What does this fold into?
Amino acid sequence: MNDLLINENAYFTITYGFTESQLLYFTEVIYLNPISKKPYMCYTLVIDFQKNIETSYRFINSKGQYSLEAFDSYEDCLKNFF
It folds into this structure.
């Protein structure tokens, strides 16, 4: 079974996914608005079995829906939605 570790604070919810052999393969950072505590962006990092790394940023709207389009940077994601 894969394990998840979740850390939360006022600005982020960070989820780490580990394989059965306890290797990190997944990290997701949900950015939270410090005033409303609602999520507005998600950063995802995935490491596959060949050690390739894929990252992306997605905007999260007020209904909790993730954007279909993914961006390479935090700044690019913000520019396209604000």
